[in-house]
Design goal:
alpha/beta, 13 helices, 11 strands, about 35% helix, F-box_dom, LRR_dom_sf, F-box-like_dom_sf
Length: about 350
């Protein structure tokens, strides 16, 4: 079958497997007038990604052309648009929308407020399409960040009603104002990650509570304990199957009784040099397993990670192996992984 016989929809589907945006810009349109027209359709760009390694594959001019002319990106990463570059300027002028966007901090430098604004403009334009976001809600100094229409980062985040995966950071490493922008939650959210214990209690509670009907996976990285309102919100997550927490939250999680929980990852910090330290750290490991016996019967896998020096590594491992064997006699259907 010749390409001329294929319908526009079939050709667009074929083009959607292309990941190289410059190929769509510079090569596909040269084939014929029909391909030139189809190469401008958003559906043709559904597979195009702008990744961190593209900083080395594309020069600044090519990246700027790509951002300026692309109607749609499957995945974009903030580091591909260095502050002050032509690509960053093109981002401010473009109308591109993205299905996935990664930006650990909205702007990595105090002097580039315009770049943070451009990122939030992109996210707001993408509010009906965006499925996955990794972003900070503040600038590195904790200063307010807003889009070109004055919407704060939290207001832009609340507008992403199609969002399914969210990793949330706070680049200021300090608390920031929260006025209930996320009180309604995100209705399609399936995965939520909080990274570091520097988020307002009400924000965490609102996001978890508002997404409790759909939430399947939750990460609470570096959070040593849960505020009562967060614990109450977590108890509503009846569909939650995958949970990653710090050891300090474990007793509160046991109280929540999550009926669909299948995978639990618990991280605890250790600091040791000798045999006595190894035994103390192994005892903490054992207390984690003891508390896990109170978790629902749906549980199938526990991963326990020790961060730091355990002391005598051989002694620590031997003691932990005996503790795992004892635990599995009580909960034989639960696999225990100790990386």
């Amino acid at each position: 079958m010749e390409f001329e016989c294929l319908s526009d929809d079939v050709l667009l589907h074929i083009f959607s497997f292309l990941e190289d945006g410059l190929f769509l810009l510079d090569v596909v349109p040269l084939v014929c007038k029909r391909w030139h027209r189809l190469a401008r359709e958003p559906d043709a760009w559904r597979g195009v990604e702008v990744k961190e390694e593209d900083l080395y594959n594309y020069d600044d001019h090519d990246m700027a052309r790509l951002v300026l002319h692309a109607p749609f990106l499957r995945h974009a990463i903030r580091y591909s648009f260095p502050e002050g570059s032509a690509a960053s300027e093109a981002l401010r002028r473009s109308g591109v929308v993205a299905r996935e966007f990664h930006c650990c901090c909205v702007g990595m430098d105090h002097d580039f407020r315009d770049d943070r604004t451009a990122v939030l403009d992109l996210l707001y334009r993408s509010r009906h399409y965006c499925r996955r976001v990794s972003v900070s809600v503040t600038g590195p100094g904790g200063e307010d960040t807003s889009d070109s229409q004055g919407r704060s980062a939290l207001q832009v985040l609340a507008s992403l009603r199609a969002l399914e995966d969210l990793d949330l950071y706070n680049c200021s490493n300090g608390m920031f104002p929260y006025a209930g922008e996320l009180a309604a939650g995100l209705p399609r959210l399936r995965y939520l990650g909080f990274f570091m214990d520097v988020f307002p209690e009400a924000l965490m509670a609102d996001l978890i509570r508002g997404s409790s009907a759909t939430l399947r996976a939750l990460v609470l990285f570096g959070i040593e304990s849960l505020a009562p309102s967060v614990e109450e919100s977590l108890s509503r997550c009846t569909e939650l199957a995958d949970l990653r927490i710090w050891e300090g939250c474990l007793s509160q999680v046991c109280r929540c009784w999550l009926p669909s929980l299948r995978r639990l990852s618990v991280t605890f910090t250790v600091d040791g040099e000798d045999d006595d330290d190894a035994l103390d750290n192994a005892a903490l490991f054992g207390s984690i397993l003891d508390r896990c016996t109170r978790l629902p019967d749906s549980l199938r896998k526990i991963t326990v990670k020790a961060l730091g020096n355990t002391g005598n590594g051989r002694l620590f491992r031997e003691k932990c192996e005996r503790l795992v064997s004892s635990f599995q006699r009580r909960r034989p259907r639960v696999a225990v992984c100790v990386p």
